[in-house]
Amino acid sequence: MIELLGRTTEEIKALVAEHAGAPAYRGAQIAEWIYRRILPNLGGGAQATFAAMTDLPLALRNDLTALFSIGSLGEPVTQSDPRDGTIKIAVPLHDGPRVEAVLMPDTQRVSTCLSCQAGCPMACAFCATGTQGLGRNLDAGEIVAQFLALQSQSPRRITHAVYMGMGEPMLNLDNVLRSIHILTGEIGLSMRHITLSTVGVLQGIEKLANEKLQLTLAVSLHAPTDELRRKIVPIHRTYTIDRLLTTCKSYFDKTGRRVTFEYILLRGVNDNPEEARQLAALLKRFPGAVNLIPYNPTSVGQSFQRPETARVQQFRKILEDAGVTVTQRKERGQQIAAACGQLVTEAYRPPAGARKLNVA
Ligand code: SAH
Questions:
Q1: Phi and psi angles of residue 64, each rounded to the nearest 5 degrees, phi first
Q2: CB 293 near ligand 1, within 6 Å
Q3: What global pTM score does this model have?
Q4: How far is Cα 52 from Cα 239, in angstroms, rounded to an integer?
Q5: Cα 6 to ligand 1 centroid, rounded to whole Å
Q6: Catalytic residue positions, numbered
């Protein structure tokens, strides 16, 4: 069986011409069904079929059914938080591991948070996914399938996608880029509404810079000194903040896009005024902004603590007074363990037979 999800219209045209002898316009119809008609409206559990593509001749539909498949994800288990409309799905991959994705509706936008790996090898000290180790890379179809599964559960059209779920996008860049091209080219998302977040894999940032995409690059900085960053972000043992910032500056020079620096606030670890001043000094003249993320407690791994609100405000003020642009991550989905860094499928096993869990 040849998988069609994760392929562009042009690729689908070529595949159905080659294997089913269908004219090119049939391929375009099939892509239309897959990306814009069936999958965004499917609802949890249902399987997309060629039989439903009613403007194709019956014989062709039968041939397609024998030759091709549309998406390989299993039935998602859904948790929703009625207070803020957040929905988290855990979806099994065909070979067993589960990945999670999140829908976050807001007044102005509807965002999705997508996973690009099952697990993650980066092992950041505070991150739940990092305790799992790497299961495997997802292919583009498996990434796009998360988006479409969430769209099918959302009454509103999804407008934004962030690659901030499970995994490190730069370690699976080819599949991530392919999925981005499907989201923009086939599903109609704006490139400017896509954010790719990396722990700071330098070769990946360099490679992405050469693509010259108008998406937003977010870099998980989390510490203003090499010594501190080495303690909480293991990959930092292999380079320095100076090199990381040089790479980010060259990313800006090549793409014209300002970089966002994510900074998780861990009480007593990196949230002191001293660190705020050091961070301000680093980024004062940098074409970028800081996104503060107060730590979300997780059920696994080392125990860190979230700083008090006043502490967060103090940190923010020091940055702003130094002229650094600061945004603060809006907290969503904490009740259903759907917030940043909380995605970990080991800790999330639904009772047998359960399809829908609602956390009141
Ligand atoms: N691997 C990518 C994407 C991962 S998650 C990266 O490292 O950027 C997206 C963001 O959530 C990262 O900035 C990550 O460091 C942060 N994060 C991880 N665990 C968290 C937690 N428990 N609380 C708050 N943010 C967390």
A1: -60, -40
A2: yes
A3: 0.94
A4: 53
A5: 26
A6: 100, 340
